[in-house]
Amino acid sequence: MTDERYSISEVARGFGLPVSTLRYYDDLGVLPAAGRRGNVRQYGRAELRRLALVQRLHHRGMVGLADTAALVADGPAADAPPARAVLAASIETIKNRVADLRHAQELLEHLLTCPTADPVRECTYLRAELDEAVEQALAALRR
């Protein structure tokens, strides 16, 4: 099997990314190019696989970019947390986001069925939530 090389524009098009994102990843060390042909970055299958991993971890919102960089690095950095710690923290973040999204869905479903004429402005359930949010913000200011 030959290690065919693909230009940065081909890879960007194939993965649905702007070329600037690939350059940024290269600058951060997240996805170094396999080499260059003239001034054009070239990528082989190993780099494409790594990009697919970055997309799954970062683009799908599972792991932040700094943690993604640490996870896909060729070797562990001295100050980087262990991979399993990064993964565990990411799972907690996702659980919190899922809970937030469920709450948002419940609120929107309530507003959709709220019997008031203008649920966004007149719903007592929403008004109570907004009052609670205001009280929390004011309490934070008082600290």
From TrEMBL:
Residue stretches in coiled coil: none
InterPro entries: DNA-bd_dom_put_sf (IPR009061), MerR-type_HTH_dom (IPR000551), MerR_fam (IPR047057)
Keywords from the UniProt entry: DNA-binding
The keyword DNA-binding is assigned to this record: yes
Keyword DNA-binding among record annotations: yes
Boundaries of every HTH merR-type domain copy: 5-74
Full protein name: MerR family transcriptional regulator
Originating species: Actinomadura fibrosa
